[in-house]
Amino acid sequence: MADRMQTMTVSIWREDGDDGRFEKYEVPARENQTVLDVVAYVQQHIDHTLSYRFACRVGMCGSCAMMVNGSPRWTCRTHVSKVVADDRLEVAPLRNLPVIKDLATDMDPFFEKWVAAEAVFHPSKTRHDPMAAITPDDPMRIAASEAIECINCAVCYAACDVVESNPDYFGPAALNRSWSLVNDIRDDGQDVRLAAVGSNGGCHNCHSQQGCVQYCPNELNPTLSIAGLKRETTKALFRRSR
Amino acid sequence: MLDLRLYMLQRLTALIMAPLVIGHIAVMIYAVQGGLTVDEILARTQGSVAWFLFYGSFVVAVSIHGAIGLRVISFEWFGLKGRALQLFSWVVFALLFGLGAKAVYAVTFAGGGL
Amino acid sequence: MLSLAISAPARLDGFLRFTDLTIVKLAEYGLVFLLAAHLFGGLRLMALEFLPWSPHQKTMAALAVAFAFLVSTLFFLKAI
Fold first, then answer.
1. In sequence order, what are the residues at sequence separation of 6 or more whose Cβ sits closer than 8 angstroms to the Cβ of residue B6?
2. Number of CB pairs < 8 Å for B and C?
3. Testing the interface with C: which of B2, B38, B68 to mutate, by most C Cβ within 10 A?
4. pLDDT tens digits for A135-160?
5. What is the arithmetic mean of pLDDT over A5-9?
6. Of A91, A162, A184, C70, which alpha carbon lies 20 to 30 A from B38's?
7. CA–CA separation, A171 vs A202, rounded Å?
8. Sequence-distant (≥ 6) Cβ neighbours of residue A227 within 8 angstroms
């Protein structure tokens, strides 16, 4: 008995170079379905022109991140029953990023800021040098490991109000990765990195509102990482003035 | 748009003001007992180096802290940028400092203080 | 305003009497409340940034200090 006539209405953002708008679609209201299931259903059975991103569909890759009823979430990990409010389901592209089409955003600004925040590894050795001896209980390694699981899904970037109001701000993900590299003794670029995160778009713009902490699907804490960067840049300031 | 220097100034003035604010509230609670008059105020403050230093440093800290705070807000909420933002920040600083300094001077060493 | 103390003390006295109005007292109370909130929120923020405490501990610390301040101020007001 696969005949389930109960349906629900979902509003999906449609944009194709013009002013975007929400469009409503009637989809089957199944007992267990994720928002990604709903979006896929619309694209496969109702409107083939709907554009959206996904890959693993099991909550590991972060490709399916979108705004669901105003909150940035992985749609494959969001059960419809858990987020539908007053029979309303609204799916929109991630906030704070330019829209390419419909639900797909341009991730270039996100990654450009990643580089600008020096969240990139600067090697200090060659393959001919001995490996760096880092023990797992080294405090710096522990700090780095706590921040390392970021998969660049941009949910925190979408959640951040400072990113919205400050176009120069690097954002939680880039700064979080920068912090993990500050704690990496193999990295040779700490001066450059501290200068970058202490600059105009850097860590000092963070108000510690912790939207990033609230929404990170990997349960990372960019606010804590950014606080670490604030401490490091402050220490560097006093070191320089001595 | 806050760089390290502005951020540190903001944090430092905040730390300076914390005890000053507590002190100020204590003074206010004491001062308003049984009504408040000009003569009462002046009797306490005129010619006093201590009050001058206390409220003088308060005015300096407030001017910096308030100007930087309003700078961030005007940038984030109203998109003020570049030279307009710089001008706004300095104007706020000048206003706060001017009004504050005038008040402190008036109740301590103006009018031929001792 | 305060500089009126020198230039026109009678006017400042008049203004001070104005501050005895209830509506002004309420506004003053509101202002002091907002100031206290700003002060303790700021201290909590700086604890978050500079001290290696857990976020929960810091919020609790700020609340505790704020509450202690409230109690001591009320006591002060009643005592005199």
1. A204, B68, B71
2. 53
3. B38
4. 999 999 999 999 999 999 999 999 99
5. 85
6. C70
7. 8
8. A208, C48, C49, C50
Chains in contact with A, where contact requires at least 3 CB pairs less than 8 Å apart: B, C
Contact criterion met (CB < 8 Å) for B15 and C46: yes
Phi-psi region of A187 (alpha: psi -120 to 50; beta: other; left: phi over 0): beta
Calpha distance A184→A13 (Å, rounded): 42
- The predicted model gives B11-37 an average pLDDT of 83
Tokens of A171: 């954002």
Please say whether the beta carbons of A62 and A155 come within 8 A: yes
In 10 A of CB B15, how many CB atoms?
13
Name every chain B residue with its beta carbon within 8 A of the beta carbon of A234: 4, 8
Residue-wise pLDDT tens digits, C3-44: 666 666 677 777 777 666 777 777 777 777 788 888 888 888
Judged by CB atoms closer than 8 Å, whether chains meet at A208 and C49 is answered as yes
Pick the CATH number of A108-240 from 1.10.1060.10, 3.40.640.10, 3.40.120.10, 1.20.1090.10: 1.10.1060.10
CATH superfamily of A7-105: Beta-grasp domain (3.10.20.30)
Alpha-carbon dihedral sign for residues A241, B72, B13, B63: positive
Dump pLDDT digits (tens) for A40-65: 999 999 999 999 999 999 999 999 99
Give per-residue pLDDT as tens, A68-108. Answer: 999 999 999 999 999 988 778 999 999 999 999 999 999 99
CA–CA separation, C58 and A73 (whole Å)? 28
